[in-house]
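Subject: two folds for Thursday's group meeting

Dear M.,

Sorry for the delay on this. The cluster queue was jammed most of the week, so I only got both jobs back this morning. I'm pasting them in the order they finished. Each block is the input sequence followed by the predicted structure tokens. Could you check whether the formatting survives your parser before we put anything on slides? The first protein is the one we discussed after the seminar.
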Amino acid sequence: MQITIVKNEMSKMHIKVKDSSVAMMNALRRTITSGLETFAIDELDVYENNSAMFNDYVANRLALIPLTYDESFAEKLEITLNLNAEGPCMVYSRDLRSSDETIKIYNENVPIMKLGAGQKLRLEAKVAKGMGRDHAKFQCALASYEYNPEKKNPEFDFFIESFNNVTAEDQLKRALEVLDKNAQILEKSKEIK
């Protein structure tokens, strides 16, 4: 597989891939969208909510807010995000306070809800590590490709967009490492037989 970078803008990347197959491009796309680890809000303890939104709806909105990612962060450590807001105001993702600055809100301008006068929202959210194949809240990047088999010297136009602090180029590298590791496991399983 031969990769040429066409455009690299930190969170977005466009590459051309030669000497590959549709199956390999689809495996790469699926690994980027569903096979990379990331952090997301997983559980919610709502202590006070007299707003117009049900707790389940608030939980759904919070789960889809991108968090930062740090590969070296120990899974056993518990990270929580706290929110204490009182209206009238617009509540944004930046209002969530992390118990550890390593893992925190990545996009601080995501609107969560509007609170009217006298309305309060007080909660604690627990963060978990997961992959997009487990739940959409763990999807850390988007990937797509275009292929025209009628062109001479067929090549693939591949696009990656990262949703967190990991650059699109690093998401690509992470995905290639996962594919390589899976290929090695498959190769070893052939040797066992």
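Second protein, same layout:
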Amino acid sequence: MGIQNGVIGFGVMISSLVLASGDKQVQPLEVKGPLAIKIRGNVLVPYSADSKEEVAKLLGPQQAESVEKQISFETHRVLLFQWAGSGQDVLVSTIHDEVVTFQYTRGRTRDLRQHFQAFAVDKQIVWKVTESDKTGK
């Protein structure tokens, strides 16, 4: 158990260092939802935060500390996606020609679930959100 935790911790530390060095243009972040402020989310309109203070307003001070350990706010911004939908809803990111596209695909089940995803995106890159005309699984 101790070795497993050490290996996992090492992996998280290395991935955080790679992101903080600016090598990744888009990186999923490990944060715990829900947002600190109670606003209905829309997957097509994410919350954007360019500083630790802005993240703290959305997620609370403890999560802002966690995010700050994962990214450099000098080079990256945080995009927070929150929405309610099918348990099979999917949000994926792709990069093509220096544009990050977050594509949302609705699931087919009627089990209403809260979704929360956060990404670190290089401030120099353009991003957009699209909705797939297909449904998931």
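Two things I noticed about the second structure. The first helix runs from residue 2 to 20. Residues 1-23 have pLDDT under 50 and may be disordered.

Cheers,
T.
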